[in-house]
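User: Could you check the structure of this?
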Amino acid sequence: MPRGHAIELRINAEDPAKGFLPVPGTITRFDLPGGPGVRVDSGVTHGDTISGFYDSLMAKLVIWAPDRDQALARARQAVKAFRIEGVASVLPFHEAVLHSPDFTKSFSVHTRWIETDFSAELAEQVRPLPPGNSPLQRCWIEIDGRRHQLALPASFQAASGSAVPASLAETPQALQVAGAVTAPISGIVQRWLKTSGETVSEGETLAVMEAMKMEVPVLAARNGVLSIQIAAGESCQQDGVLGKVTP
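Assistant: Sure, the predicted structure tokens are below.
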């Protein structure tokens, strides 16, 4: 006879605030939760690299308790204790779901619940950056009552004579390149829809990148003539420069 209640959470290297985009990279911290009724099945640890060629699953977190309320309580504690750094993870999403009345009270979730009813606002996770980047200062501004993070080149503030805190020295190299066509994810350029020398329009899809079985379009940031730097079939880190659009 079945006994108790179990909840399983898949822990993927994806950013739920950006439509669950996969985030390949190197895990710099991987602290597992523990306690009664908590089990983690995983094949990775800190120092391992999540590849863009395979599924983004890092671990399965399984919680058991004599009843549903205790299982929910244990699951909340386990998610809060799970620490992953170096790559984004779906842990913030799981934490929000475990506090949602749709899941905890009425159990009114369905196959399109995330797209139609899930309303929690999740913060975009800081993405791993490729090596050799120039300094960036991260700062916050408020727009319509909400806080938004900005990333500005260090030279922007240095020009006014202000020092840039060392802890903020991180930036994608693409910020230094006017009209850069940047990679929205770390992965492979599956195909270019435009060719070098072709005139493109702002917002037009230039290429398609693939990572972890997901295709993501690459869009033009302005009108102009396209110059391709990374060929189809080659890989590129997130925020890396794929090409350039010149007026």
